[in-house]
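Before a colleague's protein record goes any further, I have to sign it off. Alongside the sequence sits a line of tokens, each denoting a local backbone shape. I want your independent view on whether this chain really folds as the tokens say. Where you disagree with what is written, explain briefly why. This is what I was given:
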Amino acid sequence: MAETNKNRRAQDPEQVIEQGLGRFELFIERNGKAMLIALGVIIVLVGGYFSYKYLYLAPRADKASAAMFEAQNQFERDSFALALNGNASFDGFLSIADQYGNTPQGNIAKHYAGLCYLYMGEYQQAIDAFKSYKAVKDNAAGTLIAAQNLGLTGDAYVELGQLEEGVKYYERAAAFSDNVGTAPVYLKKAGLANEKLGNLQKALEQYTAIRNDYPRSMQARDIEKFIARVQQQL
């Protein structure tokens, strides 16, 4: 055994390296195909992501922005049916959402479509459109729109007489964004709906939250009378 170890220590370094390379080549021979497949998958995924983002999504986003211009123009003119459906000259929000739904512009077109349906009195279609919108939380504007989207869904449910569902969405909208521009609006709507449902304690909690948490909001200006009204009924 000692002689064997001695022989190994005395072995030509080049032979040791060659033996090591031989073992490595054997490993590659046995496993190389799987390694190359795995490496290829990684390259395809990484390359595919950047190709998808910059060669596919970016140009589509530009096209969607151009398409949105006239639809938004008609929306601002209160031409809701035209903004929604478009005509031979331009695409409406429905078409933009269908064609470019995986872009930010296509996503916001779904929200616009819900608004058009809401203003046209087509409440179930409005709900469906609002629910197809994907909330964006990575910036202040996206958070506000997402909160509004939930609140408007609540409006549509209330218009259909489904107050319980309306309350759920108002409460979700109020909780989604702790913002003086949206949260007290939807807290008050939830309170009013809860009053109609006879949920007086819940309504009182929501009115009180407006007074305590958002004292500078417009809704807080006359909230004391709503609080007093509910307290008289309890």
User: Anything to note?
Assistant: The chain has a mean pLDDT of 80.
